[in-house]
Write a structure and sequence with these properties.
It is built from 4 helices and no strands. The protein is mainly alpha-helical. The protein is elongated and about 80 Å long.
C-alpha cells in the first residue's frame, strides 16, 4: 500500500471510543473491608484537611538552650 493511501485511511478512521466497561475495580479485601483496618486507620485515620498551614505554624522558632531544646518543647501551643 502506498504511504499516501495509508495516511488517508488513518486520517479518515474514527479513532478510539472510550467506554467505562473495562474500568470497574476489583474487590480488594484489605482496602474495601473496613473491618480489616488496623492501627490509626481503624480509628478513622489521619486527616488531610487540616486547613492551610505555613512554616510559622510548623516550626518552633522559640529561643533554645545550649542543647537546642526550646522553652516550648513538649507544651501544647
Amino acid at each position: 500500500m502506498p504511504p499516501a493511501t495509508l495516511r488517508a485511511r488513518v486520517a479518515a478512521a474514527p479513532g478510539p471510543r472510550p467506554s467505562g466497561d473495562a474500568t470497574a475495580p476489583d474487590y480488594v479485601r484489605f482496602h474495601d473491608d473496613k473491618t480489616t483496618y488496623t492501627g490509626v486507620h481503624k480509628a478513622g485515620g489521619p486527616t488531610t484537611v487540616d486547613g492551610r498551614k505555613d512554616l510559622r505554624e510548623l516550626c518552633d522558632r522559640a529561643p533554645a538552650d545550649v542543647r537546642g531544646v526550646s522553652g516550648t518543647f513538649g507544651r501544647a501551643r
